[in-house]
Write a structure and sequence with these properties.
Blueprint (H helix, E strand, L loop, with lengths): L1 H8 L6 H10 L2 H4 L3 E11 L19 E11 L13 E11 L4 E10 L15 E5 L2 H6 L14 E2 L5 H12 L1 H8 L8 H24 L14 H4 L12
Helix pairs in contact: 5-6
């Protein structure tokens, strides 16, 4: 349904990978009978309207496209309980492609679920879900940094996104006119109610437990008593109930 709405309302959009993901999500052989999951490969958005904030300036006159790929999986029995982390795997890449007269140029953002191993000393510094500029897709593509210095980027805490929320994120940030039409801000159309229902359902499944776990930081008791620790979501939170040796 989402793919059909986007194909109808977003110029040049091809929703075949979303349709493949929907079929994969309902196939119990992929992730087991107690889990769900799917992958979205190379979802492309065309017709990005550049602004004066886009650099280098020469790229503003070219064709700029946005690509998205995503892998997501979780347990069926935690997706609606509102207390547990609903996912055990997430990797989302959003890549913007342009040209500078000499070749392709790229910017990328990466949202993932941090996987901690026993003895992983860096885990305490990582929000379990975090957004970063760069990520795997960017490091695979960029060969020449010129005089640019690229420090380790901060990991910004961010709620998880499935394909629905990721598409909504891309539309809201890069295709604002189409997005406002879909959500009904500028009059809406015949698909607006269904689009809002689809997005709001995804927000309830993934953002409600994330928000509830985060808000539990201000409830009585130490973080360790919470089903999903607020400190895993936002490591900078201070647990006032935890005694420091």
């Amino acid at each position: 349904m989402l793919a059909d709405i986007l194909e109808k309302n977003v110029p040049g959009f091809n929703g075949s990978s979303l349709k493949d993901a929907a079929n994969e999500c309902t196939d119990p052989t992929e992730y087991g009978s107690t889990s769900w999951g799917y992958s979205v490969d190379l979802l492309q958005f065309f017709g990005y309207k550049s602004s004066e904030e886009l650099y280098p300036k020469i790229a503003r006159a070219g064709n700029i496209r946005v690509e998205m790929d995503l892998t997501i999986a979780g347990k069926c029995n935690t997706i609606h309980d509102g207390g547990h982390d609903p996912l055990h795997e997430l990797e989302l890449n959003i890549v913007v492609w342009g040209e500078d007269g000499e070749g392709k140029i790229i910017a990328a953002w990466h949202l993932d679920r941090h996987i901690s191993d026993e003895g992983d000393e860096m885990y305490s510094d990582h929000p379990i879900y975090h957004f970063q500029f760069g990520g795997r897709r960017m490091w695979e593509e960029v060969q020449d940094y010129g005089d640019l210095i690229v420090p380790e980027p901060p990991r910004l805490a961010f709620p998880p996104m499935d394909a629905i929320l990721a598409v909504n994120f891309v539309l809201a940030n890069y295709f604002g006119d189409d997005w406002r039409e879909l959500i009904g801000v500028e009059g809406g159309n015949s698909d607006s109610d269904e689009y809002r229902r689809i997005v709001s359902g995804a927000q309830e499944r993934l953002w409600r437990p994330y928000s509830q776990a985060l808000s539990a930081a201000w409830e009585p008791g130490p973080f360790s008593e919470q089903v999903w620790s607020p400190n895993a979501i936002w490591p900078q939170l201070i647990d006032d109930y935890e005694e420091v040796a």
